[in-house]
């Protein structure tokens, strides 16, 4: 077995399959693109779904990749086991309808055992197969694996419920008896069993069936191969480590954390080791996730980031680390991963800024969580209870980021236990809510056999021509190929077409199909890309269409012109945002319609009105400079050298189309544009808002729509001027300032009068002190405006020490406000304002609560006020 670094293992895997004719796909963003079924990219195959479900046919059916991935369903186990991680890399090789079992099994054995490659000892390798998959078993034996090293396991079948499925085979490495954690006669003591000796390093899925909604399994039109090899696991084998964490992927992080800790050393204490591992794993995850555009928030993937940062911060405290520290590990992650992910070090400053800001925010939250825990313990000790409720433990975990183990540890020091059943019940409820929120969307669709089988050539001519003569090569209706269609909805493919298919946020062209006599035979309502790349026209048939016939295709030119202008505006906007907000900003989505454009982008924090005005000015400056717009196809490496901007999260082939706007902007792009920025005329931002964690949205208009928007705003301003009786629009701000000043003065007058009324009411009320058992009580209905005035009276009552207890009520229409106060002496004798108001509030048809010294309630039953006051006296008298 060779001694290889993690970067060498990754590269060797990719090089092996490149030699076998595979294209190397770059690692995609961790944030899924156009896939609502996934929170994160969680496997190597997740970014290749479009190939496996048949929506796109790849140029090369053989693909290999090293894909960064995040899985968060086992966060609680990270640090406690040898293998659980939130961030990991999955090495994979994939066949989309090309090779199958007889090729992939020998290749797997060659990579693992050949002296040229990994050179693992064949005697230490074992495989498992699905019992009914005797073909795979026979192929392993033919490859040279002894029958004694092949185990049949019923679980070796990959199935996601609906969609592609099939048997799989797993490869295990025997780490030796010294790692065995079960007895020799234990039924789990075998490859594939629950033990630490046999480590799974590779899974090969034979995706040959389609699992239908009715439960049947039918053959896939194309049989596929999907494999996954966890880089961290293989590296641990190559580097002879007990767990993933002693490899070169983690140890630099752990060593750096040691320097930050309170003289703690990895390997000296098992509890400290858990903390070291959690910090190392979470540092990798948040670094890569933020680098790919995710930002901490209270929902979705942003919530995951926030939880990971907080969990790392809590474990930093356990190691004696004070203050923010996780951000310091970002360059360490970057240096470890530099050979394959150089972008981490390029974006280091921004990633550190985000993490440190979140750490600072959590410092206060962490103290609040500790305060809640300490209060819970104190309350239990006061009542003689010894168990923290599960709901409290879950709140500490869910709201404050406290792992339940830490809660147990702190509570245990005080002789207090934790209701783990209650905690698990709350955790299960949360998971059910999350599962319900994801809905029933399938993670992979079924292949469309009809469209996948169509291989006819089709050329797009619409870069320059909006009318063209073309032959109808393929005619589909009701998911079947036809030679003739007379009515209804159909799908058409022509040998060439000027119609643009929806892509990159730009909507599809619409228009008509005419026969040789100029009669409209179909209206084009949508255009999408077919699995093999052709422009697939969806049409409403108005007259007979025949396969093989010649037709005239005419795009709606005015619609295309307006769409193209708005598309160019998104390029200008993208570049302007980078200039104003920083290079970390990148496009997160767009929509280009004829009448407006929508542009989503990542940004840490809100965009100020001044920044928006600056962006708008930059875009308009480029329009008025009348910059030429050109495009050309070139090798992707050449495009990168020229500084062309790639759409974030997209993958590109070896040849790309680059659109250049004068000296201002150059981007990878597949959309349509005018020939000069002057065509846009004017650009105006109409709205800016946040749409998710760290994602902002700008809506804007150009040309005629921009003029109409400005005219509408001018009309509104003129109307406002008229209402303010201002003879000129320019005087409106001054008029509004005057009105605000007048309003503020009036409010002060009203507040002064209310204060006088409250003082008069106090004089009347505080003179009427009654006895209620052992307590003195002021209880009355007062004629004041509302709760604010009741609180003013409460402050006066406290300052003057009028009585032990105060109960005041006021009513306005059908709304009742109720206030209860208790003096320090009354509290010491067992009276709590919060308890008393809960007892009497039902009388006014409401409820409330508060502190022991002051509480308030609201209700909708003014007739019950006297009952509430009477009940207060009776409750005190009974104490």
From TrEMBL:
Catalysis: reaction(s): tRNA(Ala) + L-alanine + ATP = L-alanyl-tRNA(Ala) + AMP + diphosphate
Claim: ATP-binding is one of the keywords in the record: yes
Annotated Alanyl-transfer RNA synthetases family profile domain residues: 4-712
Chief location: cytoplasm
Keywords from the named record: Aminoacyl-tRNA synthetase, ATP-binding, Cytoplasm, Ligase, Nucleotide-binding, Protein biosynthesis, RNA-binding, tRNA-binding
Superkingdom field: Bacteria
Top enzyme category: ligase
Location in the cell: Cytoplasm
Enzyme Commission code: 6.1.1.7
Record SUPFAM superfamilies: Class II aaRS and biotin synthetases, Putative anticodon-binding domain of alanyl-tRNA synthetase (AlaRS), ThrRS/AlaRS common domain, Translation proteins
MF annotations from Gene Ontology: alanine-tRNA ligase activity
Family: Belongs to the class-II aminoacyl-tRNA synthetase family.
Function field: Catalyzes the attachment of alanine to tRNA(Ala) in a two-step reaction: alanine is first activated by ATP to form Ala-AMP and then transferred to the acceptor end of tRNA(Ala). Also edits incorrectly charged Ser-tRNA(Ala) and Gly-tRNA(Ala) via its editing domain.
Domain notes for this protein: Consists of three domains; the N-terminal catalytic domain, the editing domain and the C-terminal C-Ala domain. The editing domain removes incorrectly charged amino acids, while the C-Ala domain, along with tRNA(Ala), serves as a bridge to cooperatively bring together the editing and aminoacylation centers thus stimulating deacylation of misacylated tRNAs.
UniProt name for this protein: Alanine--tRNA ligase
Organism: Lacticaseibacillus mingshuiensis
Gene: alaS
């Amino acid at each position: 077995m060779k001694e290889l670094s993690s970067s060498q293992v990754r590269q060797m895997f990719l090089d092996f399959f490149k030699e076998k004719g595979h294209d190397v796909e770059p690692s995609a963003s961790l944030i899924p693109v156009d896939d609502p079924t996934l929170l994160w990219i969680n496997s190597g195959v997740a970014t290749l779904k479009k190939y496996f479900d048949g929506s796109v046919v790849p140029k090369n059916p053989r693909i290999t990749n090293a894909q960064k991935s995040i899985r968060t369903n086992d966060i609680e186990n990270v640090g406690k086991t040898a293998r659980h991680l939130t961030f990991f890399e999955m090495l994979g090789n994939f066949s989309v309808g090309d090779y199958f079992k007889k090729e992939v099994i020998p290749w797997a054995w060659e990579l693992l055992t050949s002296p040229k490659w990994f050179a693992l000892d064949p005697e230490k390798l074992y495989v498992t197969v699905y019992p009914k998959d005797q073909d795979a078993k026979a192929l392993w034996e033919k490859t040279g694996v002894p029958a004694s090293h092949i185990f049949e396991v019923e679980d070796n079948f990959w199935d996601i419920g609906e969609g592609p499925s099939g048997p799989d085979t797993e490869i295990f490495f025997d780490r030796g008896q010294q790692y065995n954690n079960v007895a020799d006669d234990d039924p789990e003591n075998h490859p594939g069993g629950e033990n630490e000796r046999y480590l799974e390093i590779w899974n090969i899925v034979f995706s040959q069936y389609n699992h239908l909604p009715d439960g049947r399994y039918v053959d896939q039109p194309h049989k596929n191969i999907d494999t996954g090899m966890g880089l961290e696991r293989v590296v641990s084998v190559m580097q002879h480590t007990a767990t993933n964490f002693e490899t070169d992927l983690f140890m630099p992080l752990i060593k750096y954390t040691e320097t930050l800790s309170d003289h703690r050393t990895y390997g000296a204490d098992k509890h400290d080791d858990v903390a070291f591992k959690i910090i190392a794993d979470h540092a990798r995850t948040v670094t890569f996730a933020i680098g790919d555009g995710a930002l901490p928030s209270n929902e979705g993937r942003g919530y995951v980031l926030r939880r990971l940062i907080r969990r790392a911060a809590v474990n930093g405290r356990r190691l004696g680390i004070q203050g923010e520290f996780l951000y310091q590990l970002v360059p360490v992650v970057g240096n470890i991963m530099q050979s394959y992910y150089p972008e981490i070090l390029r974006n280091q400053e921004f990633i550190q800024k985000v993490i440190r800001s979140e750490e600072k925010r959590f410092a206060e939250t962490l103290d609040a969580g500790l305060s809640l825990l300490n209060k819970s313990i104190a309350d239990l000790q006061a009542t003689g209870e010894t168990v923290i409720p599960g709901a409290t433990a879950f709140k500490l975990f869910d709201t404050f980021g406290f792992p339940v183990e830490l809660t147990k540890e702190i509570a245990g020091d005080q002789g207090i236990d934790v209701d783990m059943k209650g905690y698990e019940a709350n955790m299960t409820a949360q998971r059910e809510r999350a599962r319900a929120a994801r809905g029933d969307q399938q993670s992979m669709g079924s292949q469309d056999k009809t469209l996948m089988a169509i291989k006819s050539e089709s050329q797009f001519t619409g870069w320059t021509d909006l009318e063209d003569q073309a032959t109808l090569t393929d005619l589909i209706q009701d998911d079947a190929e036809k030679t003739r269609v007379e009515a209804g909805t159909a799908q058409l493919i022509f040998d060439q077409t000027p119609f643009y298919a929806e892509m990159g946020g730009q909507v599809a062209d619409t228009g008509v199909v005419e026969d040789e006599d100029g009669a409209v035979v179909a209206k084009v309502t949508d255009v999408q890309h077919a699995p093999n790349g052709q422009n697939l026209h969806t049409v409403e048939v108005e007259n007979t269409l025949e396969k093989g016939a010649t037709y005239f295709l005419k795009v709606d030119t005015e619609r295309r012109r307006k769409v193209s202008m708005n598309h160019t505006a998104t390029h200008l906007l993208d570049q302007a945002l980078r200039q104003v907000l920083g290079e970390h900003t990148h496009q997160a989505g767009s929509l280009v319609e004829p009448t407006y454009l929508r542009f989503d982008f990542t940004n840490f924090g809100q965009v100020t009105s001044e920044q928006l005005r600056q962006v708008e000015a930059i875009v308009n400056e480029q329009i008025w400079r009348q910059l030429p717009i050109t495009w050309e196809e070139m090798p992707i490496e050449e495009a990168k050298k020229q500084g062309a901007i790639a759409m974030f999260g997209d993958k590109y082939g070896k040849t790309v189309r680059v659109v250049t706007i004068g000296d201002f902007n150059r981007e990878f792009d597949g959309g349509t544009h005018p020939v000069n920025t002057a065509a846009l005329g004017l650009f105006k931002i109409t709205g800016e808002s946040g749409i998710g964690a760290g994602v902002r949205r700008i809506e804007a208009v150009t040309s005629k729509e921009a003029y109409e928007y400005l005219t509408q705003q001018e009309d509104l301003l003129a109307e406002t001027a008229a209402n303010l009786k201002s003879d000129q629009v320019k005087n409106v701000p001054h008029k509004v300032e005057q009105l605000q000043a007048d309003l503020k003065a009036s409010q002060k007058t009203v507040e002064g009068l209310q204060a006088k009324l409250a003082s008069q009411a106090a004089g009347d009320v505080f003179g009427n002190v009654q006895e209620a058992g052992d307590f003195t009580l002021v209880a009355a209905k007062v004629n004041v405006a509302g709760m604010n005035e009741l609180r003013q009276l409460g402050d006066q009552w406290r300052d003057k020490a009028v009585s032990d207890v105060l109960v005041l009520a006021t009513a306005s229409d059908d709304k009742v406000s109720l206030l209860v106060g208790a003096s320090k002496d009354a509290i010491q004798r067992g009276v709590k304002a919060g308890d008393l108001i809960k007892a009497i509030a039902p009388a006014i048809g409401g409820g409330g609560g508060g502190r022991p010294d002051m509480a308030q309630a609201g209700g909708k039953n003014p007739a019950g006020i006297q009952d509430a006051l009477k009940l207060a006296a009776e409750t005190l008298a009974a104490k």
